[in-house]
Automatic annotation (TrEMBL):
Originating species: Halorubrum glutamatedens
Annotated keywords: Cytoplasm, Methyltransferase, S-adenosyl-L-methionine, Transferase, tRNA processing
GO biological process, alphabetically ordered: tRNA methylation
GO molecular function, one term: methyltransferase activity
Domain of life: Archaea
Protein name, entry field: Class I SAM-dependent methyltransferase
InterPro entries the record matches: MeTrfase_TRM5/TYW2, SAM-dependent_MTases_sf, TRM5-TYW2-like_MTfase, TRM5/TYW2-like_N, Trm5a/b_N
Domain (SAM-dependent methyltransferase TRM5/TYW2-type): residue spans on this chain: 81-328
Length: 329
């Protein structure tokens, strides 16, 4: 059967395979093949292949791979699962059903060290939740995303793997030598890759555990020299970086508007703000744009470059992002 493949020299095969795996593009239904020093790696969506490999796309016959056993194969229904590193996360109110799914996860071929069930909603200023450990013995893991590794403990920090595509969209806009302030940095899923692209990043977070992981992750990914991690409220800790930022990340969608005065004070002569918000479907972008314009006042010209629905958040509500350029008036 003819399928799309990325064709690269054999010595580059593992590096490219890992890059495609990080982008969730590997076609698990077909086998990788090697011929004449070239390795052919089947992919699921050729249009999503990273640009550096787009000229290596070919169509090629590939043998079908025997499919591993999934939890759904064992259960007879498709459970709702989320994977974070080697943790599988459930969101089940029924204890018996949760344990049935956990047993199926462990009996399947799904790589997994721990199965957790959500035991509370996201709570408090630090936006963490409680967990029930159904299998395994911990809540710490290492998550891979677009070629970077992030150590974290889901019981101590907030992290959503569902936002990987959105993070990558923003990160791809960063140019070398930019000055970036990530105002709510968490364990570094924006800050670390931005630093890897050559930016100097100031990464702030109220959660001291998140900052400790961020520092570890900067070291882990070889960018510690480009990341300055600051624990505390960015409104109180980042004054020294006023008027310097070429780019600001404001991923605190429930209350980012409360930090816009600080964002404007951090902005340099020209600055792009990635502003995340949660709003009703009737006007998902208007409140954020108005809040940014009010904060900028007469000091900056404001141009909205992108309005993007990131995901559905609740009935009739969207998690959205506005990419907004401030230019000093």
């Amino acid at each position: 059967m003819s399928v799309p493949c990325v064709a690269v020299e054999r010595e580059r095969g593992e590096t490219v395979r890992e890059r495609l795996a990080d982008a969730d593009l590997l076609d698990g239904d077909h086998r990788i093949a090697v011929e004449g020093g070239i390795i052919y790696i089947p992919v699921t969506d050729p249009s999503a292949v990273p640009v550096e490999f787009s000229d290596r796309l070919v169509e090629r016959d590939a043998a079908e791979r025997e499919r591993p056993r999934t939890p759904a194969d064992l259960l007879g229904y498709e459970p709702s699962l989320e994977r974070l590193g080697d943790i599988v996360i459930l969101d089940e109110d029924d204890d018996d059903r949760a344990r049935e799914i956990a047993d199926a996860v462990l009996a399947s071929d799904l790589p997994c060290a721990t199965v957790l069930n959500r035991a509370s909603p996201i709570e408090g200023e630090l936006r963490v939740r409680r967990w029930e450990v159904l299998a395994g013995n911990g809540t710490e893991t290492v998550h891979r995303e677009y070629g970077h590794e992030f150590a974290l403990d889901v019981a101590e920090v907030y992290f959503s793997p569902r936002l990987a595509t959105e993070r990558h969209r923003v990160i791809e806009q960063v140019e070398p030598d930019e000055s970036v302030v990530d105002m709510f940095a968490g364990v570094g899923p924006y800050a670390v890759p931005m630093a890897a692209r050559g930016a100097d990043v100031v990464a702030c977070d109220l959660n001291e555990a998140a900052i400790a992981y961020l520092e570890e992750n900067a070291e882990r990914n070889g960018v510690a020299d480009r990341v300055t991690a600051i624990a505390g409220d960015v409104r109180e800790t980042a004054d020294v970086y006023a008027d310097t930022a070429d780019r600001l990340v404001m991923n605190l969608p429930h209350s980012a508007d409360e930090f816009l005065d600080t964002a404007v004070s951090l902005a340099g002569e020209e600055c792009v703000i990635h502003y995340y918000d949660i709003q009703h479907e009737d006007d998902p972008f208007g409140p954020g744009e108005r809040a940014i314009r009010d904060a900028a006042g007469d000091d900056y010209d404001v141009a909205v470059e992108t309005e993007r629905v990131v995901r559905s958040y609740a009935p009739h509500e969207y998690n959205v992002c506005l990419d907004v350029r401030l230019t000093r008036a």
